Input
Amino acid sequence: MLRFLRKTNVILFLTLQGCFLVILTIIAYGYNYNWEDVFQSYQEEQIKVNAFKMMDDIRNEDLSVGPYSPEQKAWLTRRAMLYGVLIRYGADRQEVWFDMFGSIPNMKDADIQEFPVVAKGQNRGLLQIAFNKQMNQLDPSYVAYQKVMQERSALLYSIAALLSIVVSITVSRLLSAHMQRLRETAGLIRTGDRQVRAPIKGPEEVRQLALTLNELSAELKIQEDWRHALMEDLTHELRTPLTSMLSQLEAMIDGIYEVNVEWLQQVYDELIRLTRLMTDMERLSEAEAARFTIHIKRENMVQLAEQVYRNFLPMAKSKSIKLRFNNPNVPCYAEVDRDKLIQVVSNIVSNAVKYTNDGGTITVGVDWQPEATIIYCQDTGIGIGAQDLPYVFNRLYRVDKSRSRFSGGVGLGLSIAKALVEAHEGVIEVDSELGIGSQFRVTIPNTYKSMNHL
Output
């Protein structure tokens, strides 16, 4: 039973039906309240009309002055019953000639109105009149009208209730149908179908959910493609040095190559290459899992950036690249882990040198702001295409699938840099245009706010 009540269409139906019932209840209450108000106004108007009728009858029958005989009292009773009213008539409130109020209990709560009876220009008596509510004989036509209105109201309420049920069922089915399609789409994605897409239909919230689900499916497809590429890259990166070392060692064992420093150096270089790859992967794993320790100190950010700049001057000079440094000439201090931030900036400048053609220009600089310090690196290199720009910080993503963009690497450097910057509660960004160049910006808060650092 509880499982049935948890279904989307059941919840929607009950919710809509509850809303309709509340609305109908409010309308019915308002209608009844308004009806009572209209009825009260009608009574006040009718009592005046009936009072004038009674006064005309009293004058016409020459009953302006009492006392009355039993026949006259009977006649007055019949006329009052005809008009559906109770009357009391006398010279004044003390001298009463005819009284119907005494036969009815609780007359103190009745709406009694008084009218002077004037005959031949003289005030003959005082007529007190009230509706005969106890006998429920107000006005036969009005009673009939009231009954018809009550019957019609009951019919309208019944029709409205049925329509609310139909509308609730229809709307709940439509909305739950959209959710059902999304559930089916999610099930297909879970089973590995990355081509399926949810229809963008229904209310805005459902459309947004479908759009998000489609984006998730597309992102999963990209991740799977990256995973396949990763396996190929790792296989290549591991097989190449291993194959080279194996062939060289076999040749030396078989006596084809002489065991000397030159051949051993080649084997050593391949081992260094393998070690570097394993180190990069270990760093990325630590960065993504936040297992590394950062040692925060207040550092001069201009000196830090200038140190990286000087480290890469020889490499830039070898390619005839103009490597420049923009000094802001203002104190720029921030709380950072110096070694790890140097690693970040070095990775960015290293990429800039690698992918800037001979004779190009690279500018490293620092901008100071009250809340943060920005270290930037702008180059005139080959640039990054718009389709690749959103993914350059993703692990193992290479802009150039032919491996030239990262010079044979597997795309770990920028991923590590991003993780290290985020560990400083900072942001790393890039703007680039293919064939024009790139600008990387590292924004680091001047004050390290986390209390978890060592």
User: Anything to note?
Assistant: The mean pLDDT is 80. Residues 8-60 form the longest helix (53 residues). Residues 294-453 form a domain with the Heat Shock Protein 90 fold (CATH 3.30.565.10). The chain has three domains: 2-140, 194-293, 294-453.
